[in-house]
Each structure stands twice: as C-alpha cells, then as structure tokens.
Amino acid sequence: SVGSDLDAAPPTPAMPLLPGARRASIDALICRAIGTMCSTRRFGTTVSGVLCVDGRSSVQQMLEEAERVSLRSTRGLDLIAVGDPGVVAAFHVAAMLRRTARAPAFTLVGEGTLAKLDVDSLRAQQLVHQGRGKLFRLSLPPADEWVAESSRIVDSRLQVGNSTEPLSLAKAISARAAVLPEGSVVAVETALVGEEKRRRWRISQMARAIARAYHWEVLPVDASLPTRPFSCVAELVRQEAANPPPGGSAECWVLRIEILPKGVPKWAERS
C-alpha cells in the first residue's frame, strides 16, 4: 500500500530572471537538452494560485504564468505535477523561476502524504486529473520569501542514474540532510543526456525519492524521534560531461534539486 511503503522508517544517520532574448535563448538550449519531455500542445489549468502541470503545455507559457502569479501573490503558488511529464515540466519551471538572485524554496509532497495532510486538496486534484499518473504538489512561497544563492552551500552530491532506486535514494537524502549544518544543502543531480525516456525516468525517480524522504520527516512512524523537514531549490546548470560522445560537447545540462534542511541537525540537542 502507499502508506506502508512511504512509512518505512529511514536509517538513523551515525539565475536571476533573464530579460527578453537572452532568457529565450537559454530556455531554448535547456529545452533542447530536455527534448520533448516538457513541450507542448496546450497550457495547464490555473486556479487561484494553483497551476496544474501535465507536460502537455509549453514550458515558456507555464513559466510566464508562474511568474505572473508568484511574483504578485502574497500566498505563493502550488504547482500540481501530474505524471512523469508533469514532474519534468514542474521542475523545469521551478528551476527557471527567479527574482534577482533569489529562488523559490519549495516543498515537494506526493499523493500518499497529501492523503494524510490535506485530504480535500488531494481529492479535488485527483478529480481533475484522474487516471493520468502519479500526482505531486510543489508548494512555492511568496517571492519575498525566496532564498538567495549565497545562502545555499552545497555540502555533498547524490548522482541519479538509470538504475537508481527511489527508496535507496530517499534513505541517502534523509541520512545526509539529518546531519548537515544550517545553511548547507545536499544536491540531488541527474545529467540531461541520453534517450528522452531515460531522462524522464531519472527525473521521476528523483521526485519519488524526495517526496518519500519528506514524508518521513513530516509524518514519522515514531513521533518520539527527532525530525528535520526540508525545502528544495531546483537548478539547471552546465557541468562537465562524465562520458562525452566522440566529437560531442564536453559539457551537458544537469538538473539539480538542492535539499535545504530546516532547523538544527537531528540529535544536536541530545549530544
């Protein structure tokens, strides 16, 4: 069942907004790297601070709508990602959404967690997108609460490959986030190279793992143990390719989801 799977206990741990042509140029480069995973036919549904993303809309359109809502709203914005294409598109939008040098630090919640935290919200979202894949909610705060790049220090990285399992990745995220000093982050990364279906698969596995790790922190099986919820920041960066093809570029686009733990490290008060 979803509940028992999510509740499996984790291990005890021993770019600013780009003007006009320049942003369009960078967006085109990223979309070329991502392929058709998040491209096309129609725009998602927007309802009172909620943007439903199913991967069938133009990323540029979604980004413009997300900017319009999030930069004016005092309540933030929820991106409802439906299915693997939706998750890919939602992460892309979150990675491109910037205000000066600040980025939205969002929470990523899966269906199993929503079912326990916000049943009414989950039911409404399922009615709209029934039978179209797993659902995730990215809750972005108001623009005045976005975090500066200088405040996020990458402590370590977790690489996601084609064979990465969500449960193992979730455990690694939880273990590392538990002991990070305040202000440090663990980066979960995957290179946007290879076949489109493989890229989409890796990104969806990232989402499942992050959502599961978050579930453990907000709905622990043992309430007596310390918890440490976290938020996330999405980034699209250029890095040196590990195995560039003959004659190919030495660099590639990488999707990075930074995990920002809140509060002091676990067990800090007990040590």
Task: Tell me what you see in this structure.
There is one protein chain. The longest helix has 23 residues, at 196-218. The protein has a 5-stranded mixed beta sheet with strand order 1-2-3-6-5. It has a 4-stranded mixed beta sheet with strand order 8-9-11-10. It has a two-stranded antiparallel ribbon with strand order 4-7. Mean pLDDT is 77; it is low at 1-5 and 9-47. It is 38% helix and 23% strand. The protein starts with a helix and ends in a 10-residue tail after the last strand. It contains 8 helices and 11 strands. With 271 residues, it is of the alpha+beta class. The chain has helices spanning 2-7, 20-34, 59-72, 83-96, 111-117, 119-128, 166-179, 196-218, and strands at residues 46-47, 50-53, 77-82, 102-103, 107-110, 135-140, 147-148, 153-159, 184-191, 230-240, 251-261.
Give me the secondary-structure topology.
Layout (H helix, E strand, L loop, with lengths): L1 H6 L12 H15 L11 E2 L2 E4 L5 H14 L4 E6 H14 L5 E2 L3 E4 H7 L1 H10 L6 E6 L6 E2 L4 E7 L6 H14 L4 E8 L4 H23 L11 E11 L10 E11 L10
Parallel strand pairs: 2-3, 8-9
Antiparallel strand pairs: 1-2, 3-6, 4-7, 5-6, 9-11, 10-11
Helix pairs in contact: 3-4, 4-8, 5-6, 7-8
Kindly state the percentage of residues in helix: 25-40%
Cα gyration radius (Å): 18 Å
Total number of beta strands: 11
| SS strand fraction | 15-25%
Largest sheet: 5 strands, mixed
Structural class: alpha+beta
Distance between the termini: 36 Å
- Oligomeric category: single chain
Order of strands side by side in the largest beta sheet? 1-2-3-6-5
Compute the average pLDDT.
77
